Amino acid sequence: KNEVEQSPQNLTAQEGEFITINCSYSVGISALHWLQQHPGGGIVSLFMLSSGKKKHGRLIATINIQEKHSSLHITASHPRDSAVYICAVRSSGGGADGLTFGKGTHLIIQP
Amino acid sequence: DAGVTQSPTHLIKTRGQQVTLRCSPKSGHDTVSWYQQALGQGPQFIFQYYEEEERQRGNFPDRFSGHQFPNYSSELNVNALLLGDSALYLCASSLGWGIGGYTFGSGTRLTVV
Fold this sequence. Notes:
Chain A is mainly beta. Chain A contains no helices and eleven strands. At the A-B interface, strand 4, strand 5, strand 9 and strand 10 of A face strand 4, strand 5, strand 9 and strand 10 of B.
């Protein structure tokens, strides 16, 4: 079982719909990242969370540390939001641990 | 302000050859992490460099090695290439332990034939 699980793996929605992507993890973490990857491969960091909720434009990220769960929401979705969204965690085990990534959620927003 | 720069963007190598990938971190960052992303998978942590030393390593064989230079730029070397090494190699930079977050490069697409 992967340490970071995302759902759904694939999501197709219509423009304007409210989108939710979920991430569950099994280890203690010091931070959780939501990342966006476009077909060219480059990754953009959207959020870094250790508690609570963050909002940036139409994007909202929440985390529940007790339940080891985070969600990424997109309001008023647009075709330009089409990308792979990746959840990644940095464990709290100490040391310079690299990030552990989920497999990503492939989102397609149709006009 | 330049972000993370990786070179080359694409590379084709023959099985058994050696390859060197390069990464320049974001200005102000001193730590470089390398990741391998196979097609359809999430990135996997290879190793992290800080103060010119390998500070942490993921589950990758010794064929994967690296280096960090005094200007914080880094190289990833892979020896004796296998077909399974074909992947997107991502570099991420951060300041220290990454408490302030990470900045990712666009990656190097390596194809081994």
